[in-house]
Amino acid sequence: MSTITLYSNSWCPFCRRAKMLLDHKSAEYNEINIDAVPSARQEMIDRSGRTSVPQIFIDELHVGGCDDLFALEQQDKLDSLLAN
């Protein structure tokens, strides 16, 4: 089973959409709220090179944000990534 890490904040609608898709897939994920964990924002930027949330990782693969996650779903590639 893949390890999923999702960097988010509590007010982001794109974070909610990404979590809804992962929940729909019954995928377990580790959510890191960058507002609640002081060092998490810099960690997210260092890992992804991006400053916006959500930033999603499946194992060590940087998937990207919400639109990227939904694009993988549309391309029928998300399930295979989640199953690894």
UniProtKB/TrEMBL annotation:
PROSITE patterns: GLUTAREDOXIN_1, GLUTAREDOXIN_2. Keywords: Cytoplasm, Disulfide bond, Electron transport, Redox-active center, Transport. InterPro entries: GLR_AS, Glutaredoxin, Glutaredoxin_subgr, GRX_bact, Thioredoxin-like_sf. GO terms for biological process: cell redox homeostasis; cellular response to oxidative stress. The keyword Glycoprotein does not apply. One of its GO terms (molecular function) is glutathione disulfide oxidoreductase activity. Residues 4-63 form the Glutaredoxin domain. PANTHER family: GLUTAREDOXIN 2, GLUTAREDOXIN-1-RELATED. This is Glutaredoxin. It comes from Amphritea japonica ATCC BAA-1530.
